[in-house]
Amino acid sequence: MHAIVELAEFIARHPENVLPRDTRDTISLLVLDLIGATAAGLNSPLAQTAREGGLAVFGEGSVDVWLTSQKSSIIGAAMANGAAASALDIDDGHRGAAGHAGAGVIPAALAVAQAVGASDARIADAIALGYEVALRVASARPVPTIITYASGRWVGYGVAAAASRLLGLNGAQTAHALAIAGAESPGMFASGTSKYQGSTVKEGIPAAIVAGLAAVYRARAGGTGPLDLLDDAQLYDRSMLTGDLGDAWALQQCYLKPYACCRYMHAAVDAILELRKPGRDIRSLRIETFPQALRLANERAPRFLEGGQYSFYFSCALAALRGREALQPVLPESLHDAQVLDLAARIELEVSEDFAGSFPAGTPARVIFDQGEGRQEMVVWHPLGDVANPMSREQVAQKFRNIARHTLPPSWQDEILAATDGLETAGFAPLFQALIQPEVQSSKGRTVECHI
């Protein structure tokens, strides 16, 4: 049996409403975290251009573009929401996949669910299955074969899995949906082929959402794809693709990101925040890390937020001088902070043999910091938010408030927090309502148009 067919049968036949309680709790946490990331990235150039372009290309419709008064088609809204969620690099990720599933799977699943009036149980199942397929495909790739870690290469599989479940496709249709999505998702440029790693192309997640959703509707209409796409043993480890399906859920192994920068540098940021003494003169700052970290663009004076997200020098200087909140999220004016740029120009960044084999399972760092009282040293193996060093729900809620503070007033934050806290008892309807701008809610009498 083809690997895609086996995955498709699992998606189509998995019993409804049997997810374990801890899995459902994780879904609630991931949804909250992603809505926060969306609020933080909502007004970024990446998100703004995606919304404008999405409406122009995919048209208006009945599905909400989150936190705005706009509506678009299923694909247009999902693409716009995924773009905002991934814009500031503060969305969830997974060690084995070395990328981000949630910014593709959750916007796609909720867009389809809103359009078709899916039940709460089916929405939760779709999110779990979407993460499962996306993360298995990404994690099954042998590291030497990976030419880019851009999530757009594989997120489309998860989008197709979630949407197939919501639309009730059978196993054969789901298999072709996965195959079409895999064949037509963005190839992305190989690591090192462009210095513009921080452009608004970035992860390729919006394009993967478009490809994944289109694949499902094409498969439902009878379209077919290359079912052997995942069968090459040199490119995909079959045991990781399909072994022990249903025994555990991959989304429970996701990490959350407290800072709006590439996960590669979070261990260094954690150490800096622990060691920093505000107001002290920073004489030197040295960071030792794993080899793949030096493949980032690492601009010392990035011109755009995306460039800052992929720069050890900039993000670590910002953490050292301005503290945690300066990375929750990073504001455009930080790009012009003269003191930050001066320190970024002086930071030393080197590979340590101690961390040579860490990636992708780990992203450790050693920080050597002199703030006028001699050198201090700290090693962080598991940055905050890792499975081995998880964030509590209270910490995720505080992160949500911090990164949403420039976009959402406190009352709106409270409504979204209450809706995500209540997913287990009240379902998704309050969340759909909370994601509409308050003035739109009032004009509608606070009634959701779709029936969830």
From TrEMBL:
<comment type="similarity">
    <text>Belongs to the PrpD family.</text>
</comment>
<feature type="domain" description="MmgE/PrpD C-terminal">
    <location>
        <begin position="259"/>
        <end position="421"/>
    </location>
</feature>
<dbReference type="InterPro" id="IPR005656">
    <property type="entry name" value="MmgE_PrpD"/>
</dbReference>
<dbReference type="InterPro" id="IPR042183">
    <property type="entry name" value="MmgE/PrpD_sf_1"/>
</dbReference>
<dbReference type="InterPro" id="IPR042188">
    <property type="entry name" value="MmgE/PrpD_sf_2"/>
</dbReference>
<dbReference type="InterPro" id="IPR036148">
    <property type="entry name" value="MmgE/PrpD_sf"/>
</dbReference>
<dbReference type="Pfam" id="PF03972">
    <property type="entry name" value="MmgE_PrpD_N"/>
</dbReference>
<dbReference type="InterPro" id="IPR045336">
    <property type="entry name" value="MmgE_PrpD_N"/>
</dbReference>
<protein>
    <submittedName>
        <fullName>MmgE/PrpD family protein</fullName>
    </submittedName>
</protein>
<feature type="domain" description="MmgE/PrpD N-terminal">
    <location>
        <begin position="6"/>
        <end position="243"/>
    </location>
</feature>
<dbReference type="InterPro" id="IPR045337">
    <property type="entry name" value="MmgE_PrpD_C"/>
</dbReference>
<dbReference type="Pfam" id="PF19305">
    <property type="entry name" value="MmgE_PrpD_C"/>
</dbReference>
<dbReference type="GO" id="GO:0016829">
    <property type="term" value="F:lyase activity"/>
</dbReference>
